[in-house]
Amino acid sequence: MTDLSANLVQQKSHLREKLRFRRRHFTANLDGMARLAAFRALPAPLSELLHDQMIVGAYAAWGDEPAIMPMLACFAEAGRLALPHHAGRIDVMTFCGWRPGDSLIKGPWGTRQPTDDAPMATPDVLFCPLLGFDRHGGRLGQGGGHYDRYFAAHPGALRIGVGWSVQEIDATPREWNDVPLDAILTEQEYILCGDRL
C-alpha cells in the first residue's frame, strides 16, 4: 500500500467515525413526528422512474439508518423487492427476493437479510445506505466495499444512496474502486448526481 492510499484509508476511517457520531446524535434528537414522516413516500421523479417491471433493491435498516421499507411497500407486496444477502463473511454480496411476511435472519455482518433459501434477484435500481455523501455522487459506506463491488459488477443498475441530511459532506474521499451514485435521497430532498436519471 502506498503512502497516498494509506493516508486515504486513514482519512476515510476518521470521517466514518465522525459521521457515525453525527448520525447517531441527529436521530437520537429527531422529533417523533419527523421520524414518522421521514422516508414514507417516494419523491415524484422516483415514482415515475420505478415502473412496474423493475426489481428494486433495498436494505433492512440497521441502527440509526433510515428505514425505507414503508416507502417501498408496494414493490415488496408485488414481489419486486430484493434485499442484500451474504453467504458468509466474504467479499461477495448478492440480492434475494423478499415479501412482507418472509423471515429475515441475522447475516454474518450483523445486518438482517433474507434466509439462505430465498430466491436470488438482480435489482434494476438499488437504494443503498451510507455514512456520508456529497452532491457529486460520492458515497462513504461502512468500509467493507460490498456495494462498490456490486455496483461494478452490475453497472446498468441505478444507484440511489439513502441517508439523513446531516450526513452530507463537501467532498467524499474517493479511491479508484469507489463507484459514484446516480442520486441521493434524504428526509429533506432528492439530489440528482450525474446524468443517468
Describe this structure in words.
- This protein is α/β, with parallel strands linked by helices.
- The protein has one domain (3-192): 3-Layer(aba) Sandwich (Rossmann fold), CATH 3.40.50.10420.
- It contains five helices and twelve strands.
- The strands form three sheets. The protein has an eight-stranded mixed sheet.
- Strand 2 (81-85) and strand 3 (94-97) form a beta hairpin.
Secondary-structure topology with pairs:
Layout: H1 3-28, H2 32-37, H3 44-49, E1 56-57, H4 73-77, E2 81-85, E3 94-97, E4 104-106, E5 112-114, E6 120-121, E7 125-129, E8 132-133, E9 139-140, H5 146-153, E10 158-162, E11 183-185, E12 190-192
The count of strands amounts to: 12
Shape: globular
C-alpha-based Rg, rounded: 16 Å
CATH architectural name:
3-Layer(aba) Sandwich
The helix-and-strand class reads alpha/beta
CATH-assigned homologous superfamily: NagB/RpiA/CoA transferase-like
Distance between the termini: 36 Å
Examine the coordinates and then state which fold CATH places here, giving the name of the CATH topology: Rossmann fold
* SSE string: HHHEHEEEEEEEEHEEE
How many domains?
1
Strand order of the largest sheet: 6-3-2-1-7-10-11-12
Ranges where pLDDT stays below 50 over 5 or more residues in a row are none
Helical residues, percent: 25-40%
DSSP helical segment count: 5
Mean pLDDT, as a whole number?
94
In this structure, how is the largest beta sheet organized? Answer: 8 strands, mixed
Name the features:
single chain; 197 residues; alpha/beta; Rossmann fold; eight-stranded mixed beta sheet; two-stranded antiparallel ribbon; globular
